[in-house]
Write a structure and sequence with these properties.
The chain has 290 residues and is mostly beta strands. The protein is built from 2 helices and 22 strands.
């Protein structure tokens, strides 16, 4: 079969579900679609599952300004990950599903509701709040490096099975918290923090390729894992590295050790996740990708 032109008359209906619930299957024209999410709010991950009656060459989803590649679970089941970025405003958004050849095979909408995030007030080295002029060029260069990474993921799925917590300790710092450093408001906290002793081994949350393993101004010693299909893990403030750029890792493999490098108030692991350039809560990933 070459693409899905016969599907052009089908409507794929994506349902909005309550937190942690799997919705009742929605079947239109033979296509059964369900979604899973903790909540439809900024910072959440949405898993879309499409069961098709015939074998397909490929599917992709367009949502929230991004094109998301679907991955094959079996001959008739596909999944796609849609990240709701912290900056997305509440409202109803169009979602379209396409075949590999570009034919639209369905469209729907889903509604994102607002979420109130807490505020955290921290005292850090003033150089990490108002960097000296000499550091500004470095910061811009690093920001550009990260932006380029998010836009060039591996085109295939590199993870498998469920994601694992990188360290034994529980997360304490809320994802999405509005950050106030030394009395000055800064960007929201885009990851989950795990207070942990210096030297604690940090494990890869899942399989992938190491695309960055060096020191950055704000996040200190940092490892970024490309899990493929737009999904990335960033592990920050490390005291040391156990991997190099270009290495392939598996879930649970040690990639470094907990530290207190960069903009920190003490030793801890900062784990951030990007899903098709959307900042999503790593705890959402742990809950949904099992």
């Amino acid at each position: 079969m070459t693409g899905l032109p016969r599907f052009t008359s089908l409507l794929v209906s994506l349902t909005t579900l309550s937190a942690f619930a799997a919705g009742a299957p929605q079947t239109t024209g033979g296509v059964e679609v369900t979604t899973r999410a903790r909540a439809y709010q900024p910072g959440e991950l949405v898993v879309v599952t499409a069961a098709v009656p015939i074998s397909a060459d490929g599917l992709r989803v367009r949502a929230l300004g991004h094109t998301v590649a679907a991955f094959k679970m079996d001959d008739h089941t596909w999944e796609a990950l849609v990240g709701i970025d912290l900056s997305v405003a509440p409202g109803t958004y169009l979602v379209s599903v396409e075949a590999a050849d570009g034919h639209r095979v369905g469209e729907s909408t889903f509604t994102i509701t607002s979420k109130a995030f807490p505020t955290r007030r921290l005292t850090v080295d003033p150089a990490f709040v108002n960097p000296p002029p000499a550091a500004l060029e470095r910061i811009e260069r690093e920001n550009n490096e990260l932006a380029a990474l998010w836009k060039a993921p591996a085109p295939e799925r590199l993870w498998s099975g469920g994601f694992v917590v990188p360290v034994p300790e529980q997360a304490t710092s809320s994802f999405g918290a509005r950050s106030v450093f030394n009395g000055q408001a800064r960007t929201p906290h885009s990851g989950a923090d795990f207070p942990s002793p210096t030297g604690t081994p940090v494990h890869a949350p899942n399989g992938g390729r190491i695309v960055l393993a060096h020191e950055l101004y704000f996040t200190g010693n940092t490892v970024i894992i490309d899990h493929g299909l737009g999904l990335f893990s960033l592990l920050a403030h490390l005291s040391s590295f156990a991997v190099h750029e270009g290495d392939q890792v598996e879930a649970g493999e040690i990639v470094g050790a907990v530290g207190a490098t960069g903009r920190v108030t003490g030793p801890h692991l900062h784990w951030a996740v990007r899903a098709n350039d959307a900042r999503v809560d790593p705890l959402s990933v742990l809950a949904l990708l099992r």
